[in-house]
Amino acid sequence: MDIIIQNGKVYDGSGNIWFKADLGIKNGKIYRICRKLKDKAKINVDASNLIVCPGFIDPHTHSDTSLLVDGKAESAVRQGVTLQVTGNCGSSPAPIKGPYKDLIETPDLIKADWESFGQYLDKLQKSGVAINVASLVGQGIIRANIMGDLKRKPLRKELKSMKELVAESMKDGAFGMSVGLNMYPSGYADTNELVELCKVLKKYNGIYFAHMREESARFIEATLETIEIGERSGIPVHPVHHRPLYQEFHGEAKDILRIMEDARERGVDITCDLYPYMWASSGLDGVLPPWVLEGGNEKIIERLTDKKTREKAKRDMVDPKLNLNLGFIARTGCWDKVILLNNNVSEKYNGKTLLEIAGMMGVKPIDAVLDLMISEGKHSSGLPTIQEVGKKEMVLEIFKHPTAMVGSDGHALNSQGVLSKKLVHPRSYGCYPLILGRWVRDEKLISMEEAIRKMTSFPAQLLGLQDRGLLKEGMWADITVFDPKTILDNATYEKPHKYPDGINYVIVNGQVVIEKGKHTGSLPGKVLRGPGYIHKEK
């Protein structure tokens, strides 16, 4: 044997109650599971008083480029995560051509020396990663490659070209397609356009991951659109960070769950994910009415510096009929509930609320937002913020539902070096330990068996992975060993780059990556290829 894990409480990921057993690992896979293994092994792990479970699978991340910068993926693997899904919310680093490489490249960090989706996956594998990666192709970048920032329906030849790019990416190994429908140009696509692209996914057994068009006032309408897309195209649909924003709309949670149940009764394969935080994260541009964002950053700045157009933007920011996404912030004046994370021009504003920044500028908060957008120049739409948007009771109601799994919406980062330089949402460091330590152990809001299932076999089922997500003989040895008494998240909104406690060992493809809470430096992760890639090889 290569590794034997002894004396642990085994939660196999199925939702069954734990049992005592030893696990033997050989050639990257689980070779034996039995009450007592007497074989000799190169590495012996004593898991007495610890929980042994499958490695966590995170279906919603944005680690596409951070993994190229640092493949050790410390903020993820130190939580027990052994597989991340990248390419979410309509944005993927491939396929990408011409000027759109500027959206990906970062001086001295990343050179986008790829064009096709397959070339990007090859580069990621060659660079080395500590965890496994499954990738989605972003519909936003597909549209940008063919139509740029144009807000209109595609011509027949343009739609044909987009469908060809989706097919090519699926053949290259994408697991499906993501959308970010309250961002642009992704959101310029109507339902019919999305259905046509999803019909391509069906040929390759792909999945539709939806950052939906609206997450507050029209949350139900957006969910119905997602279901319609799944029903008309015949593929699984998966809304991400699926909860209504703002307390005003929390009562819709019950209706959403009933709608999803009804859809499943009709045969629509719909699931969702969400994270256990009451603060969300998005770009500052989400506070603006959609028409301001048309045409990209140069047009945004041009509109906001024109006095007449600026005043119209301010009026529309508080009009509920015209500004639906983060417009709630402007309408209610809760500027103290929005924190600016990183401003490349004026770092003194980082970590401050919009109300505080307005005071520093000596202007009203609504003007401070517009001035920040202008000052940030070509990066204006990328100003990251966090906003207090949810109440725990509502998030729990959805989280406990059978259709819901865990998804961090985070990045693979490092508490040292270049990836630690900016403020981030703490979900990148603490999502999984928060649930296991606070919600399961301390507050007893959900059972350990069910929490682990939502982190392992359930997302594996979504991705169609038959050899991961469970502890069974013959499965890949992606395993997390943690202490149920000490596991706890340490990352906060003020100090997000802090690793959790209680994760003792993490094994990826049969190799130890976390040993006694420390990263070994090993990079055994695989860049997985979706079912379309197998189809292409035939």
Question: How would you sum up this structure, described in words?
Answer:
The protein has 538 residues and is of the alpha/beta class. It folds into two domains: 56-278 and 389-496 and 529-537, TIM Barrel (Alpha-Beta Barrel); 283-384, no CATH class. 33% of the residues lie in helices and 17% in strands. It is built from 18 helices and 21 strands. The protein has helices at residues 66-69, 74-77, 117-127, 139-147, 156-172, 191-203, 219-233, 252-265, 297-305, 307-317, 327-332, 354-361, 365-375, 392-399, 427-442, 448-455, 457-463, 531-537, and strands spanning 3-10, 19-26, 29-34, 43-46, 51-54, 56-58, 81-86, 132-135, 137-138, 176-180, 207-211, 237-239, 272-274, 279-283, 338-340, 384-388, 404-406, 479-482, 503-508, 511-515, 518-519. Strands 1, 2, 3, 4, 5, 18, 19, 20 and 21 form a nine-stranded mixed beta sheet that branches. A four-stranded parallel beta sheet has the order 9-10-11-12. Strands 6-7-8 form a three-stranded parallel beta sheet, covered by helices on one side. Helix 7 packs parallel to helix 8. The longest helix is centred in the first third of the chain and has 17 residues, at 156-172. The radius of gyration is 23 Å and the shape is globular.
Characterize the main sheet. Answer: 9 strands, mixed
Please count the helical segments. Answer: 18
Count of individual beta strands: 21
Indicate the percent of residues in helices.
25-40%
Instruction: Output the structural class.
Output: alpha/beta
Q: What's the CATH H-level superfamily name of the largest domain? A: Metal-dependent hydrolases
Determine and state the CATH class of the largest domain: Alpha Beta
What is the rounded Rg? 23 Å
CATH topology annotation of the largest domain: TIM Barrel
Unreliable runs, pLDDT <50, ≥5 residues?
none
Shape: globular
Distance between the termini: 35 Å
User: Overall mean pLDDT score?
Assistant: 91
